[in-house]
Design a protein that fits this description.
The complex is a heterodimer of chains A (134) and B (500).
Chain A (H helix, E strand, L loop, with lengths): L5 H14 L8 H18 L1 H16 L1 H5 L8 H12 L4 H19 L2 H7 L8 H4 L2
Chain B lengths: L1 E10 L3 H9 L1 H5 L4 E4 L14 H8 L6 E2 L6 E2 L21 H7 L6 H14 L12 H13 L4 E2 L29 H7 L3 E3 L2 E7 L2 E6 L13 E12 L2 H11 L18 E7 L14 E3 L3 H4 L1 E5 L4 H7 L5 H7 L5 E8 L8 E4 L5 E4 L4 H20 L4 E3 L8 E2 L6 H4 L13 E2 L29 E3 L14 H17 L1 H5 L2
Parallel strand pairs in B: 1-2, 1-9, 2-6, 4-18, 9-19
Antiparallel strand pairs in B: 3-4, 5-11, 7-8, 8-9, 10-13, 10-16, 11-12, 12-13, 14-15, 16-17
Classes of the chains: A mainly alpha (134), B alpha/beta (500).
């Protein structure tokens, strides 16, 4: 990954597993696909966005220390979810927007893969007239 | 920097630029050099893969997710040979009389726009799809509206040889959608108009443009060698869309004499709403957008349209995350979708500015009135979903992730206004309008009714940035009609403009 360092990328996968539980079931190749899609999207948005995204990951990682005495990665899954939920509805707009951006990246990484389309039953075809019954 | 000289430079090749290019074809036939400078690439047919992430990266600015300054909204607009017409759904409506009256532009009347729109409806093969081509997602919307007594109309669309791929927003892989890349640009090129892709215009100065050509690694290589250019042009027509046109002119120093430049931006803030049916429905096959409901347009300021999006866009538009979110995504073949468009007011404070590097920044705030409209639209949509037989509905402002059938009578209670929180719910825009609004003079507008920039006779604007207020409908036909006017005015004044 070029947009994030190794530590940030690794933490991103930790959070992605809470956002899309199926990420936990991905093998190494699947995780690499998720990260590659996110990486490309971040790189397209430029260095400033990459930096801000990295900073937001840091905030999410360390903020739970204040409430729980542990970093995000060290929390039980239900508490991790509670932290993301709090961020998602936080009074501070920046935290809400950062969470929205983080979720979007996780969704793009996971659902941007053809393998995920099969899992959810999305099967587009260039010629669908027959399936339409027309 | 290479130096080139042309008669007319058209910046952008979407609905506006494509129409202008075709309408200026007589000048090219008469020996004038007319060039279209397009930022995006021209994809080869095999590059239309229908793959969401791949296509979004190649056909949209920032993958279709350009943030507003406050990061409470994202905007999707195209960058390609054909501009946003490559990625729209091709719904083709003529601007209503009442909208043109509200615009109040001296010298612009509905009859003229209607006549020009009619020309493009024919040119683009606009027609209503027959009943057997409508999928369940669309029919269910109509059914829900009918059961509730809501007014519902069918969209005319501009397809030819549609194979029902439903991939319109990712660039039709069957070349069926009649965007400018299929109709007006080839007509213009056949007449001698040059289209230069992968060419970003960075600045407009006195009868000249500065541009950079860089091939992105996909699509056809540009007709011009990569590098920097200074293009002398006797007339310039800016058609870069509601973000990039005002940004280009601001960056070029036109803002001093034109205080309205960049201002009065409207976005038709949009929501994508989802419900789940008991059984699979046809949703990702067939044209995605067949009906609209304008029942609430005057009373609550929003339109409802049918829509069907792809996995990632669907996922990011749902609120929440985790198991419930995954559960809904796994119901993909059973999902019904509605697109909400709020009609936002044209405010001077909502505007495009440029940052220190000259890049556009969209400074736009969702007003309380627009948030009220979005809230009302969620409730109306939930009613339509349930009336159509949905077993459960997901509302971004819902008190719970799913509203069940049994909740249908408690919609007002279960979709509270307090949950409509900017930055938490996904609000998007694909109808970007204003920023170079037409009007009577430079104090509160940028161009006259012909798209000519006040005080700059060689400079025209011909795109959705001309709209003084929101169009209240899908805007591309109106853009073409306005571009047709700009081209006609330029042709009529070709003698004085081009014989210098």
């Amino acid at each position: 990954m070029t947009s994030l360092n190794e530590e940030q990328a690794s933490f991103l996968l930790v959070v992605a597993r809470r956002i899309v539980p199926e990420v936990a079931g991905l093998d190494e190749r699947g995780c690499a696909q998720v990260l590659a899609i996110i990486d490309r999207a971040l790189m397209d948005r430029g260095a400033d966005v990459c930096r801000k995204f990295g900073v937001f990951l840091g905030v999410l990682r360390w903020a739970p220390v204040i409430r729980y005495g542990r970093t995000f990665s060290g929390l039980r899954p239900d508490r991790q979810d509670a932290v993301v939920r709090w961020f998602e509805s936080a009074p501070l707009g920046l935290l809400r927007q950062g969470t929205w951006g983080l979720k979007s990246m996780a969704f793009m990484g996971y659902y941007g893969r053809v393998e995920a389309w099969e899992e959810i039953g999305y099967a587009p075809s260039f010629d669908s007239l027959e399936r339409l019954g027309a | 920097m290479r130096e080139l000289s042309v008669d007319v430079a058209i910046i952008g090749s979407g609905a506006g630029g494509g129409a202008v290019a075709k309408e200026l074809a007589p000048l090219a036939r008469a020996g004038r050099r007319v060039v279209v400078l397009e930022w995006g690439a021209k994809l080869a047919e095999h590059e239309y893969t229908g793959h969401e992430v791949d296509m979004a990266g190649k056909l949209y600015f920032e993958n279709g997710g350009v943030f507003t300054k406050d990061r409470n909204m994202t905007m999707a607009f195209g960058r390609a040979y054909g501009g946003s017409t490559v990625v729209y759904t091709g719904t083709s409506l003529t601007v209503p009389d009442r909208v043109v009256a509200r615009w109040g532009v001296p010298g612009l009347n509905w009859g003229d726009l209607q006549q020009r729109s009619a020309k493009y409806l024919v040119e683009n093969n606009v027609h209503l799809q027959p009943e057997e081509r409508l999928n369940d997602n669309n029919r269910l919307f109509r059914l829900g509206c009918e059961r509730l007594g809501y007014r519902c109309e069918q969209f005319p669309i501009n397809v030819k040889g549609c194979r029902a791929s439903s991939l319109c927003n990712l660039g039709c892989p069957n070349a069926a959608k009649q965007g400018t890349h299929r109709v007006q640009l080839p007509m213009a090129e056949a007449a001698g108009v040059e289209v230069v892709t992968n060419c970003r215009v960075t600045r407009v100065s006195e009868r000249a443009c500065e541009a950079v050509v860089a091939n992105p690694g996909y699509g056809e290589p540009s007709a011009w060698e990569p590098g920097e250019y200074r293009v002398t042009a006797k007339a310039v027509v800016v058609c870069g869309g509601a973000v990039n046109s005002p940004a280009l002119l601001l960056r070029s120093g036109f803002g001093g004499a034109l205080p309205a430049l960049g201002r009065y931006l409207t976005l038709h803030p949009a929501l994508i709403l989802v419900a789940e049916h008991e059984r699979p429905i046809t949703n990702f096959v067939g044209h995605p957008k067949s009906f609209y409901c304008d029942e609430f347009l005057e009373s609550h300021g929003f339109l409802l349209e049918t829509c069907m999006y792809f996995p990632f866009v669907t996922a990011k538009n749902l609120i929440g995350f985790g198991a419930e979110h995954s559960q809904l995504m796994r119901a993909f073949p059973r999902l019904q979708m509605i697109l909400v468009l709020a009609v936002d007011p044209a405010l001077a404070s909502n505007r495009v500015v440029v940052d220190a590097a000259g890049e556009p920044v969209v400074d736009y705030t969702l007003t309380d009135e627009v948030l009220d409209s979005l809230h009302a639209s969620m409730k109306a949509s939930a009613r339509i979903f349930f009336a159509a037989g949905a077993r459960r509905v997901h509302s971004p402002a819902g008190a719970r992730f799913f509203l069940e059938e049994a909740d249908a009578d408690r919609i007002d209670e279960l979709i509270p206004r307090r949950n409509v929180v900017p930055g938490k719910i996904s609000v998007t825009s694909a109808h970007l309008m204003g920023g170079c609004r037409m009007g009577g003079g430079p104090a509160d507008s940028v161009t006259d009714a012909w798209g000519r920039v006040h005080g700059v006779p060689w400079l025209y604007v011909a795109d959705s940035s001309l709209f003084p207020r929101a169009s209240e409908i899908n805007p591309y036909v109106t853009v073409m009609a306005l571009a047709d006017r700009a081209a006609e005015h330029l042709r009529a004044h070709a003698g004085e403009l081009l014989n210098r």
